[in-house]
Amino acid sequence: MLQAIGAEIPVQCDGISLAPFLDGASSPDKWRSEAHWEFDFRDPADDSAERELGLTMHQCTMNIIRGDRYKYVHFTSLPPLFFDLEKDPGEFVNLAGVAEYAPLVLEYAQKLLSWRMNHDEQTLTHITLSDDGPITRRSARY
Questions:
Q1: 52-72 pLDDT, tens per residue?
Q2: Which domains does the chain possess?
Q3: pLDDT band at 142 (very low <50, low <70, confident <90, very high)
Q4: Which residues contact residue 17 at a Cβ distance below 8 angstroms, ignoring those fewer than 6 apart?
């Protein structure tokens, strides 16, 4: 959106321009192959999820990575979930403990960890303070 309105893009901004999609390109260079998201399901006004799942308030969070075929869900203190979306589009069968899926579960857990590490808090990552003021450097992220 910043590019579209001609605004300067701060070095802390994560992501790449979606403009190629608007111009009819199939996808920008180095476009991701999975979607990632996090969900915080704690509720300070209601501790029923914590009590039901045996979690503390700080453990009521999950991270998800979803590709075309597989979806991996990682919880802070609960066993993971792994779904084969081609065979089980409704996500009813957790395959995380099935031996034949173990290599894929590990692959997706590693992908999720790498994504988290790459996208962790980066407010000051590209800035250093010097006697002459702040110095910034944009990183080639992808």
A1: 999 998 898 999 999 999 999
A2: 33-136 (3.30.1120.10)
A3: very low
A4: 3, 28
| CA gap 139, 37 in Å, rounded | 22
Other CB atoms within 10 Å distance of the CB of residue 112: 19
Angle at CA of residue 116, ends 112 and 118, nearest 5°: 115
Residues contacting residue 99 through CB under 8 Å, at least 6 positions apart: none
Helix (H) / strand (E) element for 48: namely: helix 48-53
CA-based nearest residue to 111, from 65, 44, 53: 65
36 and 67 Cβ atoms separated by less than 8 Å:
no
Contact 36, 64 (CB under 8 A): yes
